Queue: 2 jobs
Job 1
Amino acid sequence: MMEIRGLFQMTESNNEKGLLTKKDLNNMAWRSFFLQSSFSFERMQAGGWEYILMPALRKIYKNNPEKLKSALKDHLEFFNINPFVVTPVAGVIAAMEEKGEDREAIRGVKYALMGPFAGIGDALIWLTIFPICQGLGASLAIQGNIAGPILSLVLFNVLHFVLQFGGIGYGYRKGLSALSKLRTGTKQLSKLASIVGLTVLGALIASYVSMSTPLVINAGKVSIKLQEDVLDKIMPNMIPLAFTFLVYWLLKKGLKPSYIFGIIIVFGIVTKYFGIF
């Protein structure tokens, strides 16, 4: 840790006039879309990670084949991160390679960023951006508007491209000075993204999960509607909420989503036939 802190002080200035051009950085960003195309349980995304860095490493070590071999060997070690936020890390590492930082320091920074960025990527993408984009698309699709799925797909991928191409430039230009800022804000941003994402998911459940029962309880001459007179008095939308928690419980138990979809379809057919829901 002391060695890495020392490197922060050595590389405080921005890397705006570096060796790598905008074309090189864009090439790396395009390659980031193939991060998981070379995947193994032994090294996870190492092959894709090295594929991203290849343009930078070849240019940096153009006149030093031995250092290029050493760098390529190092970056084939275990690597695993959320693919949507890999480019800022790649930019930082490329800047360190260009400045000739110690190989152990580069390895240490790379591993130090994997965990936090995996967490923040999951919270930012799967709990915030993805539900919002899908929710906007679903709201139109439910109304029969064909623009719903198109809007969802386009909006999500526009944000994806902004993250990939903006992240590589930011990481490279700022170098390790960006690392200190990212490390301090990672926990707060991850927590904030989780809260926003869960709030959005809660709103989507209330808006789009619709279930009610027509059952009537007869007690002598009195008829009590189970939905309106009992359940809604206790808590509105109790049945959709309970059904959502049931699906969540099945997912936590490790049941495949395809099986859960099948269960929901069979459940809907059976309960509709018997007039339960």
Job 2
Amino acid sequence: MAKVLYIKANARPDGISRTFRISESFIESYKKTHPSDEIITLDLYKEGISFLPSGDLLDLHRPEEGTGRDHPILKYAFQFLEADKYVIAEPLWNLSIPAILKAYLDYIMVTGITFEYTPTGPVGLCQGRKAVNITTRGGAYLEGSGAAFEMGDRYLRTLFAFLGIRDFKTIAAEELDVIGNDVEAIVGKAIREAREMAKLF
């Protein structure tokens, strides 16, 4: 049985968010084809994720032995480490990811839990896992001149690789804010892609 961590990062709620329409379709399809797997949903806005507190953060760089899931900050890194698969759902905001998702990533990037430093450099401790990023964008960033400005999916892909997760796929619905485009058709195509990908995820 695999454990899936479903990370949601959008201020818009279910039913309104175009991102979540796609990601929820992915999850529904996944449940049908992987009925014995456990899905843990972490909605960052409902969770109330905030920026790391000011002060001494040494305990976040190398946790003391015995520190566990009851730690108010480190519990997220332990939860991330315990997952086998990750589904991230977020819109492209200002060419990058929502700030709340970046704040969450600061919580899980912990030396000694999700990665460690070695004589030859940093090594991710989440190897052998897989991830899919589901994102929506107002413009065109998959190719052409816009590709150089896309720093959301690219950042997530790079950071996950740093943690040892190199099986990283992306489902992107683009040009949703371009006047004249059939938004429902674009979202519908992404939903169909999500449902198919979920079967083999």
